[in-house]
Amino acid sequence: MRIFHIAGDQFTELDSLPDALPSGGYLWIGSARIEFAERIATVQGALQRWTGGQLVDLHISDLLNDQLPSHYDDTSWYDLLVFRRLAAGTVAAPPEDTHKRGPQHPLAHVDTSPVGFAVFDRVLLTVHPNDCMVREFFAQRLQQQTQGAEVRAASRLPPSPPDLMLRMVNHMVDSYLELRRTLTKNLDTLQQSLFDPRANFISWKTLLDSRNSLHLLEDTCEDQRAAIVEWIDALAEWPPVAEPAAQRDRELLRVRSRDVLEHIERVLSHVRRLESSIENAVQMHFSAQGNRTNEIMRTLTVLTAIFMPLNLVTGFFGMNFEGLPLIHSARGFWVIFTLMLFLGIALSWWFWRKRYLGRSR
Question: Could you tell me the pTM of the whole model?
Fold first, then answer.
């Protein structure tokens, strides 16, 4: 568990939970899920001292649940947002050799894990997975903004707990935006193998896993969008403020919220395009296979039609009769052979002119 005090252009990490809130700014408490479960009583007592309210039992269960979908809820003391982020190492790169067997693992299972936010007026409590880098990333980033001679303006630091929450959420959504490139590249590799006439495509399980991963990602994004929409609706119902600075901060929250929603919409739109693309690729693959089968059957039918009259001639002159024409002639074989050769060439030329032979264009 890490505790930070953010006030103006100051970003300070505290050793432990203070007895009372500092006179200015707000506190950010970032905790791993396991440690939060072990120190719930301590955190609840600190929240009671600072804000006069505690987390309700249902919300504590939500924060401890690592399978909970993204959602939003509020109380008179705080707002609760659960937002699923991408877990590390969820997508595998495709192998180099795809001509013989096709890509074996173009898209690994897209794994996500929830991050919980409890937003008070002057306290932000975040509950992260044990391997979450979001907390460390923002702790380091905010520390760098206030260090050394290159101190940034105070406006660059999050002025309130909701602002910091939205920045974290936006950072998690950006990871989904970056995932689009990998998904597109890997699915393109899969589709190229699907349409390669020299490859015997056998990676149907991989293709099914890819579709399931896209469906999972779509469901995750829809839950994220619903949670952010509910947050925006709740933000619109906040009581108005009179101070210009507070009005500016409130408008900044609306802008950031709409920006997060727009990013989620972009990811969702791209995932749906990928789903449509892979569905169309499968349909086109079976259409191409059907067309190829039709061409093979057409060629075999034409060859059968060419050899049928030749078989008729050989069968006719193979009858065991003494009175057949040319049967006792020395030139009979060459006459019949020339006739059969001419008949075969003529039928082949006629079928070629009718475009029954050769690849159709």
Answer: 0.72
